[in-house]
Fold this sequence. Notes:
Elements: E1 3-6, H1 7-11, H2 26-43, E2 47-52, E3 68-73, H3 76-85, E4 96-98, H4 102-110, E5 114-116, H5 118-124, H6 126-132, E6 146-150, E7 155-163, E8 167-171, E9 176-180, E10 184-188, H7 192-205, H8 218-271, H9 277-342, H10 347-364, E11 367-373, E12 375-377, E13 380-387, E14 391-397, E15 404-407, H11 408-413, E16 422-427, E17 433-446, E18 449-459, E19 469-471, H12 473-476, E20 480-484, E21 489-495
Parallel strand pairs: 1-2, 1-4, 2-3, 4-5, 14-19, 15-18
Antiparallel strand pairs: 6-7, 6-10, 7-8, 8-9, 11-21, 12-13, 13-14, 13-17, 15-19, 16-17, 17-18, 20-21
Helix pairs in contact: 8-9, 9-10
Amino acid sequence: MPIIIDGWNLIRDESSRIDDDQADHLQGARDLIAYMEKYQNDHKDPITIVFDSRYEYLNINYKNKENLKIVPAADADGYIKKYIDDIPEKQRHNLRVVSSDKELYYYARDARATPVKSSEFWKKICIFLVIIAASLVYFFNTAWADTIYLKNKHVMEGIIQQENEKEVVLDIGFGEIAVSKTEIERVDRSDAQGRQEILRNWQNKYPETGRWVPEGAEDVFAIFKAVGKKREEIIDAKRRMANFQLVYNEQENELFNQQSRFSELNARFSAINKSDPYEYNKLVAEINAASAPLAQLANQVKKSSSRLKELSADYSDLMGEYREKLLNLIQYVNNEQERLGKQNAPEEKKDFYRWLLRELGEWNEDFEYKEVILKRQGGGIAVDVILNGSARTSLIVDTGAELVTISDKVARELGFPEGSGDRISVVLADGKTVGAERVILDSVNVNGFEIKNVEAAVIKNASYSGADGLLGMSYLRNFLMKIDSNKEKLILEKFK
C-alpha cells in the first residue's frame, strides 16, 4: 500500500522517536528519511514524504528513488490533498495518509483514503524500529541508560536484561533486541538509580504498550484497550460501507444505462415496419439479448441494496455501542484522576491517568455534534432540509420510516419525472401500506450534515401536515440521534 507522509507533523508529534531539538533542524528531516529508507527497503511500500517549506527551506540534497520520494512543498497540506484527489476513488482506500493534522486527517477519511495519525504510525512501526535500532546513533539520548558501543561506531541505549557468551539482550522500552557480542566494542552499565530513571522515562513515553500500567489500574487499561478495539471496528465498518457504496453506485449507473438502452430498443420496436422481416427479426434478437442481462443486473442491484442497508445498520449499532462505552470510560477516568489528585498517589499513577485522558480526548474528537432547531408541524416535528444541494424543504423526523420520503411535487422540482423510479411499497407511520417510486437523492443535508446517495420514496398525493415529506432512516441511521423536547432541538452526532 502506498504511503504519503506529512513530514514535519510526523517528526514533531509527541510520540516521535526523532529528536527535533537539534541545532540543525533539518537533521530531523534527514533522520526521518533514514528511517523510511530502511522501512521501505523491508516493506517495499512506495513512500512520499512531503515537507512544508514555507518557513523552513528544505536543502538536504536528497536524490529521489523509485519508491521513496521527498517533496518540499510551499503548501504541504494542499499537495497531499491533491495527491489524494488524483487517485481514482475506487483505489484510494489503498493509500495511507500519515498526519495528525485534523483537517488533513478528516479530508483523507472523507475522500475514502486510509488516514493514520502520526502517533498511531509511530506505534505501528515500533516492531520494525526494534529491528533497525542498531543503526540509530541517538536512540534514547539518556545518560543513565546501559550503553552498548558497537564496532561500527553506532550506539544503543536501554537496560540490559540478560547476557551470555554469545549475545547481550537489551530492553529498549517497547521491546527487546539481541545484540551479538561479535558486533560489540564495549558496554557501559548504569547504576540502580539510572535504571529507575529510564524506567520512569519509558512509563511516560510508551504507556500504550501495557508494560507500565500502575498497580490498581490494570482493569481500566484493559477497558481502554477494548474500547480502542471497538474504535478500530467502527472505522473498518465505515470503510466497508463506503467502499460498498461505490460498488452499488456503479451498479445503479450501469442499470440506468441498460434500462435506457432497453427503452430505446422497445421504442424502435414500436415504430418498426413489420413488413421488413430482416430488420424486424434483427431488432427482436437485440431485445432478447438485452433482456436477460438487464434482469440479472436488476436482481444484483436489489441484492446490493439489501446488503448496503445491512452494512449501514451494523455501522449504526457499532457507533452507538462505541459512543456509550467511550463516554462511560471518559467519565470514569475523570473521576479517578480527581480522586488521585486529592490523595498522595504516586506520580507515575497520575501520569498514567493523564495519558489516558489525552488519548480518550483524541478519540472523543472523532465525533462531530450538531443541534438542529425543530418545528412543530401538524402532529409531528420537522426540520429544514436541503435536497440535492439546492432544494429547500421541510421534512418530518420519523424514525419509523425506513426511507426518506418526499412528495411528488418536490420530486418533480428535483427533476424526477413521474414513473422514473422502481415501484415499491412503503409502510407509513399509521401502518398503512402505499405504493411509491424509489429514487436516489444526490444528497440530503441537515444543518451541514450531508449524506450522499440517499435512497428515498416518492409518494403521490401524500399528506404530510404541511411538510414536504419524512426524514427517515435512510438518512438518520448515519447518526446518533436524540430529541431534546425541552429545547425543541434535534441532536445529531456523527463519527467523522
